[in-house]
Design a protein that fits this description.
The structure holds three protein chains of three kinds.
Chain A (H helix, E strand, L loop, with lengths): L3 E14 L4 E16 L4 E5 L6 H9 L6 E6 L2 E2 L8 H6 E4 L13 H12 L4 H14 L16 H13 L5 E5 L7 H18 L2 E6 L2 H7 L2 E6 L2 E7 H6 L4 H8 L9 H22 L9 E3 L5 E3 L5
Parallel strand pairs in A: 3-8, 3-9, 6-7, 7-8
Antiparallel strand pairs in A: 1-2, 1-4, 4-5, 9-10, 10-12, 11-12
Helix pairs in contact in A: 3-4, 3-5, 4-5, 5-6, 9-10
Chain B lengths: L8 H8 L8 H10 L1 H23 L2 H4 L26 H37 L1 H16 L2 H11 L5 H10 L3 H14 L3 H8 L4 H12 L1 H25 L10 H6 L4 H6 L1 H29 L7
Helix pairs in contact in B: 2-15, 3-5, 3-15, 5-6, 5-8, 5-9, 5-11, 5-12, 6-9, 9-12, 10-11, 12-15
Chain C lengths: L1 H28 L15 H11 L5 H13 L5 E2 L4 E2 H36 L4 H15 L2 H15 L18 H22 L1 H15 L2 H8 L4 H19 L1 H18 L5 H10 L3 H29 L7
Antiparallel strand pairs in C: 1-2
Classes of the chains: A alpha/beta, B mainly alpha, C mainly alpha.
Protein name (chain A): Peptide ABC transporter ATP-binding protein
GO biological process, one term (chain A): peptide transport
Keywords (chain A): ATP-binding, Nucleotide-binding, Transport
Chain lengths: ~300, ~300, ~325
C-alpha cells in the first residue's frame, strides 16, 4: 500500500504571446510523471536543473498548479491541496533549498517556527513558547535563541530552523527540496544525518529532491531519475547505482566522484566510455524531440524508459 | 554574526532585550545621526513642530482671522511682529496657525495615501498576473491625469467644501506613487522562499500579505512616506495658493502666499508672503534631507559607513 | 515593436472613454447649469424650464453623454456663458499661448539638463558634481509657484527686466517682427521659471544613467581597446543615456500642464491654465469641462507617445 501516489502528473506553463497576450503554447515542465512512496521511506527525485523535479515537489504541496493527473495521500485525493481539509495540509510540509531566503528576515525565530502552530493549533503564548523551545532543542539549537533574528545564525543553523518549522505540526510527509545544496559540504553531512535521525524519531516519510547523486545515495531507498519533465528510470537505490539501464542514468552515475585517488585514471576512462556510448546510442533512448520514452519494467522494482518493443 | 553554542549570562541577557535585524531602526538611527545635514534638519523639524503646535495652543484662531480695518497692511512693528494683511489680521499668528494647518493636513494626507497605496501595491504585487495587470492599468490612468487640474476640478464641484473633503480629494489622486513602489517591491519579495514557505504552512493570503510581506517593505515605506510628506506640504500650499485649498477662514502657508497674487502685495508688502515662502522651503528641504538620509541608511550600497 | 505599439494604443481607448465619462459626470454634478446665471426678476422660471427641455438637459444621462461626446469629437464644446462665445473659439485664442509656453519650457529644460547632467555624471563625486547635485536637491524641494513668485518679484518688479503680465504688448499687429519679439519677450521669464525647477528630474536621470553606464562591461571594453575618452562618451555613453531622455517629452506633458496652471496664473499669461482657473472662479462650466478634457487627452496621448518611443529606444520596457 503506497503512502503517497502520484499518477500521470502534468504541469504545463502557458507561453503568452501575440497582441492580446493569449496563450500560444505550453512549457511542459512536468509531463506525465507517476510514482509512489512507502511510509517511513525516503524517495529521491533526481535530475538536472530544469528537469521538473522541483516543480513536481512543489505541485504536491500546492505551490504549483497541477494541469492534469492525480495525487493521492494516504488514500485521499489531494490533487487540489489548497482546498483540501486542514489536517491533510498539516500532514505535508516542506523544507526549502535556500536557508537564507526561506526565513523571513524581519521575524524572530519564535515567530518563524510558531507560524504553522498559530495557523492550525490554538495555543496560549506560554504553550507556544514551550513548543518552540522543544522544537529548537530537537533540531539541536539552543532554546534560548528563540528571540534572535535569522541573520544571527549560520546557514546550517538556519536550515535547522527551517526543519523545526516544518516538523512543528508533526507532519507525516516532508518534501525536501534540495535541502543541503546551499550549504557547505562540511555542514551538509550534519544536516543530512540529522534529517535521518528525526525521520526515525518522528516516523517521517521524505520526498527528497536533489541533483546530487551522492546525497541521494546517502539518503534514499527508492530513486526516480527525471529528464526534461519525464522519468527516465526508477528503481531502488541498488537498481539505480549498481544496475543503471538507461544511458542517461549511466552517465549520471559515472559522474559521481570517487574519493580514492588511485582509481582516478580508471574512473576517467570509464566516464569517457560512457560518454561515447551516450553519444552513439542517444537516438535509441530518446525520441525525435529528445524526450524520454514511456517506462517499461525490467524487474519488480526497476523501471526504465525504453522505446516499445517492435 | 554567527553565534554558536550555549549561551552565557550575557547571551541570556541578549535574548531578553530584542536584537535588531540588519536593516533595523538602530542602524537607520545611527546613519541619521552620522549625517550632519540630516541631523540638523531633524533637530530643526522637531523644534519647529513643537514650537508651532505649542504656540498654536495659546493662539486663538478666531481672534487671528478677525478683520480689523484700523490696522490694514501694517509693516512689521511692535504690535504685529510680522505686520498685517489687507484685513488687518496679524501675519505672525496666521503663520503659526497656517504652518500647523499645513503640516497637519500634509501628515493626514501622507498617512491616508500611504495606507491606500501600500494596500493597493501589496495586493497587486502579491497576486500578480491578471489582477496585477488590471490594477496597474487603473493606476496608470490615475497617474496620467495632471494632479493640479483634476484636484481643482473636483474642488469646484464639491457642494460642502471643507478641510475634510479637501484632504479626501488630495488623497484620491496621490496614492499612486507609493502604490507603484510597494508593488514592485512586493513582486520581488513574493518570489522568495519565505513567502512560499508561509503558503505551505497554511497561512492565508491575507495573513501572508500583512504579516510577512508588509514588514519587509517597512524601510521602503518609511522613506517614501517621509519624502511624500515634504511633497504634500508643497502640493497643499500650491493648491491653497491658487485658491483651491484651504478656505480663507482657515489660514495655511498657501493662503498666505496667495496674497502675493496681488501685484501690489508681491512688490511692496514682502512681510505677507516672504516668511511663509521661507517656511515652506525650509520645511520641505529639511524633511527631504531626513528622507534622503533614511534612503541612504536603508540602502546598504549607499550607506556611508 | 509593432505589437507593443498597437497594444499600447489599444490601452489608450478605455483611458479616453474613462476620462470623458469622469469629466461628463463632473459637469453633471456641478452646481447649477448655464442658465442659472441668468435667473433674475425679469426672467420667467417656466421659460427657463422650457429651454432646459429644448436643450435636452432632462434626457437620460447616456443620451446627453452621447450628444456631448458627439459634439466634442466635432470640436463643439458648447458656449461659454460668461465670455458669450463658443468655447472652441475661446480655447482657440488661448491654446497656442500654452503650447508655445510648453515648447519653450521643454527646450529650456533640456538645454539646462543635458550639459549639467553630463558634467555631473562624467565627473561624479567631484565638486562640479556636488554643485549640480545640490542644485537638483534644492530644485526638488522648491515648489514651482514659490520660485515663480520670487522670479516675478525679482526680475519683473524689482529689476524690471521683464513684463509682469500678458503674452504680448497690446497694440502690436499680429505677423510683424515686433509682435513676434514681444511674444518671445513675454515668454522668457515664465518659461525659465518653470524650466529651472522642473529640470531637476532630467538632470538626476541623466546623471544616474551615465554613472551606471560608465561601469558597464562594454564601456570598460571600449576603454581597454584604447578608445579615447571623447569617443567613449560620444559614441557609447551618451547615445545610451540621451535617447531615453528625448523620449520622456511625452511624459513631461502631464507635468507641464500642472506647471502651466501655476505659471500662467502667476505671470498673468493668458493660456489654458489661466482659463481653467478663471472658468472655475466664474463658474463657467462648459469652459471648465472643455479645458479639463483637453488637458486630460493631451496627457494621455503624451504618455502614449513616450511609451512607444521608449519601446523603440529601450527594448527592456517592452517586456512588461
Amino acid at each position: 500500500m503506497s503512502y503517497l501516489e502520484v499518477k500521470d502528473l502534468k504541469i504545463h506553463f502557458p507561453i503568452k504571446g501575440g497582441l492580446f497576450s493569449r496563450t500560444v503554447g505550453h512549457i511542459k515542465a512536468v509531463d506525465g510523471v507517476s510514482f509512489s512512496l512507502d511510509k517511513g521511506k525516503t524517495y529521491g527525485l533526481v535530475g538536472e536543473s530544469g528537469s521538473g523535479k522541483t516543480t513536481t515537489g512543489r505541485s504536491i504541496i500546492g505551490l504549483n498548479n497541477i494541469t492534469s493527473g492525480q495525487v493521492l495521500f494516504d488514500g485521499v485525493d489531494i490533487t487540489n491541496i489548497k482546498r483540501a481539509k486542514s489536517d491533510v495540509r498539516k500532514d505535508i510540509q516542506m523544507i526549502f533549498q535556500d536557508p537564507y531566503s526561506s526565513l523571513n528576515p524581519k521575524k524572530r525565530v519564535i515567530d518563524i517556527v510558531s507560524e504553522p502552530l498559530r495557523n492550525f493549533e490554538n495555543l496560549t503564548r506560554k504553550e507556544e513558547r514551550k513548543r518552540v523551545q522543544e522544537l529548537m532543542e530537537l533540531v539541536g539549537l539552543s532554546p534560548e535563541s528563540i528571540l534572535k533574528y535569522p541573520h544571527e545564525f549560520s546557514g546550517g543553523q538556519r536550515q535547522r530552523i527551517g526543519i523545526a518549522r516544518a516538523i512543528a505540526l508533526k507532519p507525516k510527509l516532508i518534501i525536501a527540496d534540495e535541502p543541503v545544496s546551499a550549504l557547505d559540504v562540511s555542514v551538509q553531512a550534519q544536516v543530512l544525518n540529522f534529517m535521518k535521525d528525526i525521520q526515525k524519531e518522528l516516523d517521517l516519510t521524505y520526498l527528497f529532491i536533489s541533483h546530487d547523486l551522492g546525497v541521494i545515495k546517502h539518503m534514499c531507498d527508492q530513486i526516480g531519475i527525471m529528464y526534461k519533465g519525464r522519468y527516465v528510470e526508477e528503481g531502488t537505490a541498488d537498481d539505480i547505482f549498481f544496475n543503471p539501464q538507461h544511458i542517461y542514468t549511466k552517465r549520471l552515475v559515472a559522474a559521481i566522484p570517487d574519493i580514492d585517488p588511485n582509481k582516478r585514471e580508471e574512473k576517467r576512462k570509464f566516464r569517457e566510455e560512457v560518454k561515447a556510448e551516450y553519444e552513439k546510442s542517444y537516438n535509441d533512448y530518446f525520441d525525435e524531440e529528445g524526450l524520454a520514452y514511456k517506462l517499461q519494467p525490467v524487474s519488480d522494482t526497476h523501471l526504465v524508459a525504453l522505446p516499445e518493443k517492435g | 554574526m554567527i553565534k554558536l553554542g550555549k549561551k552565557t549570562e550575557a547571551g541570556a541577557l541578549q535574548a531578553q532585550t530584542p536584537i535588531k535585524s540588519p536593516s533595523g531602526f538602530s542602524i537607520i538611527w545611527r546613519e541619521l545621526v552620522r549625517d550632519k545635514v540630516a541631523l540638523i534638519s531633524l533637530i530643526f523639524l522637531i523644534l519647529i513642530v513643537s514650537f508651532v503646535y505649542g504656540i498654536s495652543l495659546i493662539l486663538d484662531q478666531d481672534e487671528i482671522v478677525k478683520v480689523d480695518l484700523l490696522s490694514i497692511y501694517q509693516p512689521p512693528n511692535d504690535q504685529f511682529i510680522l505686520g498685517t494683511d489687507y484685513g488687518g489680521r496679524d501675519i505672525f499668528g496666521q503663520l503659526i496657525i497656517g504652518t500647523r494647518n499645513s503640516l497637519s493636513i500634509a501628515i493626514l494626507v501622507t498617512l491616508m495615501t500611504g495606507i491606500i497605496g501600500i494596500a493597493y501595491g501589496l495586493i497587486s504585487g502579491y497576486f500578480g498576473g491578471h489582477i496585477d495587470n488590471m490594477m496597474m492599468r487603473v493606476l496608470d490612468f490615475f497617474n496620467i491625469l495632471p494632479f493640479t487640474m483634476i484636484v481643482i476640478a473636483f474642488v469646484a464641484i464639491v457642494p460642502k467644501y471643507s478641510v475634510t473633503t479637501f484632504s479626501l480629494i488630495m488623497t484620491g489622486f496621490l496614492w499612486m506613487g507609493i502604490a507603484r513602489l510597494i508593488r514592485s517591491k512586493a513582486l520581488q519579495e513574493k518570489e522568495l522562499d519565505y513567502i512560499q514557505a508561509s503558503k505551505t504552512l497554511g497561512s492565508s493570503n491575507f495573513k501572508i500579505i500583512f504579516t510577512q510581506l508588509l514588514p519587509n517593505c517597512s524601510s521602503l515605506i518609511i522613506v517614501t512616506m517621509t519624502l511624500n510628506l515634504a511633497a504634500n506640504i508643497g502640493l497643499e500650499s500650491g493648491l491653497s495658493f491658487l485658491g483651491f485649498g484651504f478656505p480663507e477662514s482657515t489660514p495655511s502657508l498657501g493662503t498666505l502666499l496667495s496674497y502675493a497674487t496681488n501685484p501690489q502685495t508681491l512688490e511692496f508688502r514682502w512681510w505677507i508672503w516672504v516668511p511663509a515662502s521661507i517656511l515652506i522651503l525650509l520645511l520641505m528641504l529639511s524633511i527631504n534631507n531626513v528622507g534622503q538620509a533614511l534612503k541612504r541608511a536603508t540602502d546598504a550600497r549607499q550607506r556611508r559607513g | 515593436m509593432w505589437k507593443f505599439s498597437v497594444r499600447r494604443t489599444l490601452i489608450m481607448i478605455p483611458q479616453l472613454i474613462l476620462l470623458s465619462i469622469i469629466i461628463f459626470v463632473l459637469a453633471q454634478l456641478m452646481p447649477g447649469d448655464a442658465l442659472s446665471g441668468q435667473i433674475g426678476p425679469d426672467v420667467d422660471p417656466a421659460r427657463l424650464d422650457e429651454i432646459r427641455e429644448e436643450m435636452g438637459w432632462n434626457d437620460p444621462w447616456y443620451e446627453q453623454y452621447g450628444r456631448w461626446v458627439g459634439g466634442v469629437v466635432k470640436g463643439d464644446f458648447g458656449d461659454s456663458f460668461r465670455f458669450k462665445m463658443p468655447v472652441s473659439e475661446l480655447i482657440g485664442q488661448r491654446i497656442m499661448n500654452t503650447v508655445w509656453l510648453s515648447i519653450v519650457t521643454l527646450i529650456l529644460t533640456y538645454l539646462i539638463a543635458i550639459p549639467l547632467g553630463i558634467v555631473s555624471g562624467r565627473y561624479n563625486d567631484t565638486w562640479k558634481d556636488q554643485l549640480v547635485t545640490g542644485y537638483t536637491y534644492v530644485g526638488f524641494a522648491t515648489p514651482l509657484f514659490i520660485f515663480a513668485l520670487v522670479m516675478l518679484w525679482l526680475f519683473g518688479f524689482k529689476l524690471g527686466w521683464f513684463p509682469t503680465s500678458g503674452s504680448v504688448t497690446p497694440g502690436l499687429v499680429s505677423g510683424t517682427f515686433e509682435h513676434f519679439m514681444s511674444k518671445v519677450y513675454h515668454l522668457i521669464l515664465p518659461a525659465f521659471s518653470m524650466a529651472l525647477i522642473t529640470t531637476y528630474s532630467t538632470i538626476q536621470y541623466l546623471r544616474n544613467e551615465i554613472v551606471d553606464t560608465k561601469q558597464k562591461d562594454f564601456i570598460i571594453t571600449a576603454r581597454a581597446k584604447g578608445a579615447s575618452e571623447k569617443r567613449v562618451y560620444n559614441r557609447h555613453i551618451l547615445r545610451n543615456s540621451l535617447l531615453p531622455i528625448a523620449a520622456f517629452f511625452g511624459y513631461e506633458i502631464t507635468g507641464l500642464i500642472g506647471g502651466s496652471i501655476f505659471i500662467e496664473n502667476i505671470f498673468g499669461f493668458p493660456g489654458m491654465g489661466q482659463l481653467l482657473v478663471e472658468s472655475i472662479t466664474l463658474r463657467d462650466y462648459s469652459v471648465l469641462t472643455a479645458t479639463t478634457l483637453l488637458f486630460g487627452v493631451a496627457s494621455i496621448v503624451g504618455a502614449l507617445i513616450s511609451d512607444i518611443i521608449l519601446s523603440i529606444v529601450d527594448p527592456r520596457i517592452r517586456i512588461k
